[in-house]
Input
Amino acid sequence: MSRDAIYTSDIHNNGFSFDDKVASVFADMIGRSVPGYAQTLQMVELLAHQYAQQGSNLYDLGCSLGAATMALNRGAAGKNCSIIGVDNSPAMVDQCKETLKHEPVEIRCQDILDSEIEHASVVVLNFVLQFVDKDERLNLLTKVYQGLKPGGVLILSEKIAFDDTDENRRQIELHEAFKRAQGYSDMEISRKRTALENVLIPETLHAHHARLQQAGFSSSHTWFQCFNFSSMIAIK
Ligand code: GEK
Output
């Protein structure tokens, strides 16, 4: 796995995009940046095992290099499901397709706002909705809801914000302490923070649960939180 050293230099000062450079170090980057990332993958596998319905479709929206796609594949083993990963970054999709070329999964290069969701029992948005324009988020969740079969689930993992300013600052400090403990320097942390401004827009857990309800989900709950990262499950 190549080590993420992108923000050790200041050449990446034009914001953040999922380009070749990011794709080539992505596995290391997300593992050292998102507290609990490995656990979300373990639980995607467990939740797929629990909720995948025989012969249905399972979607990993914003699949990057396919880590959650493969977790879905493992979890749904033996249920004759179709596993579909979707991402609109050509760099991510090229690398994902190459890595998973012998696996029984389909990887599509497509905007998740345009992708069809049908006959689904499990849909995953693992740290992806945060990159989608806020005005489009309800439409996307509504489409996911409509594409799910009764009893199907959405697993939604996000970086989150807090209404209380002090709490928000404390959680950001803890996240930055986590990144320092993972070997990122203060300079790298600060450059990445600037690059992600206006690109990654976190919302509160309350806002997420309210939107899930608005999209039609009969119930949703938070199953994981570590600092300002969280994962929810919503049931149709
Ligand atoms: C994982 N889920 O390893 N359409 C398609 N893809 C998109 C869109 C969009 N509109 N917006 C963003 N993406 C993965 C990690 S990373 C999270 C997901 C992170 C894609 C984008 O190209 C990138 O690959 C992914 O969403 C976000 O479990 O980098 O923090």
Q: What stands out?
A: The domain at 37-161+199-235 is CATH 3.40.50.150 (Rossmann fold). The chain has a mean pLDDT of 93. The radius of gyration is 17 Å. The pocket of GEK is lined by residues 18, 30, 62-64, 67-68, 86-89, 92, 111-113, 126-128, 131-132 (CB under 6 Å).
